[in-house]
Amino acid sequence: MSEEKFDLPHASPVVPAMLTGDSPIQFQCHKGISCFNACCKNIDIQLTPYDILRLKKRLNISADEFLPKYTFPFEIDAHGLPGVKLAPVEGGSACQFMTDEGCSVYEDRPTSCRYYPLGLLSMRKKGASVDEQSYALVVEDHCKGHLEERSLTVDEYREEQGLKEYDDHTRGWRQLILKKKSAGPAIGKPSQLSLQLFFMASYHIDQFQKFVTSEQFLANYDLDPGQLEKLKTDQLGVIDFGVRFLKQVLFGEETVPVQADAARKREEHIKKRAQEAHEIARAQAELATKQAGKEGT
Ligand code: SF4
Ligand code: SF4
């Protein structure tokens, strides 16, 4: 017996057949086609951490600016696992990046836009530790690309759309979600804190980077100097680390070593802060006494 979970990155009205990388498809999209831009006029696009990293870099803005302006939140599962989707133009359904000339962020467009008209199906058989990947062809009336004469395999289409890189940087995160969905009630509803950490590690990459390089985090987790340097300078590394950290948060796997003497370090940290506060208070009291003395003379 197997349990199957599908994860379609694009809203799909039709899932007619399971395809593999070798399956042939007939499809071509180009600027002169009669339906040009039709697929970008009514969007439903879930974003991955790598999509966000690429887009915010492209726009040269922080996650603080990107998330409220270009995304809206939704729940991935019944436990409230947070997801984000691309927000359309205000009061409409078209993508904010759509122009008469096509996609204004084409080189950094999200995974779902690259896959279309394919849907990625991630599946985990019950008891299996590895996910299987297959594809479905989404056929919508407005999309005339299916009438073009070009034939190619799914893998050739993925290559053409630059999906290898996107999939490589998203595989771990997808597996995490699939594991969470497949586990069902076995792991129960994550705590509010776990859900907040999932959001931060997945989407608010800048904040997560600050968090994992903070004194407080390092007092609790044992990171080697090379790893810490990478976290400070490379947000792609931050995304990968986020997946590892979330396995610990969601499933209790020991993926990030905990400081053996974390409790002692925390105590020392608190003592140090208390000592500093005490010294500041003493210096202020001395100053106040001196000033009072001067005023009295
Ligand atoms: S990001 Fe680009 S390709 Fe994707 S929906 Fe928007 S305009 Fe279309
Ligand atoms: S062919 Fe399909 S994917 Fe290309 S512009 Fe038309 S609707 Fe969009």
Describe the structure.
With 297 residues, the protein is an alpha+beta fold. It folds into 2 domains: 170 residues, no CATH class; 62 residues, no CATH class. Helices cover 46% and strands 11% of the residues. The strands form 4 sheets. Strands 1-8-7 form a 3-stranded antiparallel beta sheet. A hairpin with an 8-residue loop joins strand 7 and strand 8. It is elongated, with a radius of gyration of 25 Å. The N terminus is likely disordered. Bound molecules: iron/sulfur cluster (2 copies). One iron/sulfur cluster binds next to loops.
**Can you give the helix content as a percent range?**
40-55%
Give the DSSP E fraction (strand runs of 2 or more residues). 5-15%
Structural category = alpha+beta
Global outline = elongated
> Radius of gyration over alpha carbons?
25 Å
Q: Could you say how many structural domains there are in total? A: 2
Global mean pLDDT? 88
Quick overview:
The chain has helices at 49-59, 63-70, 111-115, 154-160, 163-168, 171-183, 192-202, 205-212, 215-220, 225-233, 235-251, 262-296, and strands at residues 18-19, 24-26, 71-75, 82-86, 98-99, 102-103, 118-123, 132-137, 151-153.
Characteristics of this structure?
single chain, 297 residues, alpha+beta, 9 strands, disordered N terminus, binds iron/sulfur cluster
List the helices and strands and how they pair.
Elements (H helix, E strand, L loop, with lengths): L17 E2 L4 E3 L22 H11 L3 H8 E5 L6 E5 L11 E2 L2 E2 L7 H5 L2 E6 L8 E6 L13 E3 H7 L2 H6 L2 H13 L8 H11 L2 H8 L2 H6 L4 H9 L1 H17 L10 H35 L1
Antiparallel strand pairs: 1-8, 2-9, 3-4, 5-6, 7-8
One iron/sulfur cluster binds next to loops.
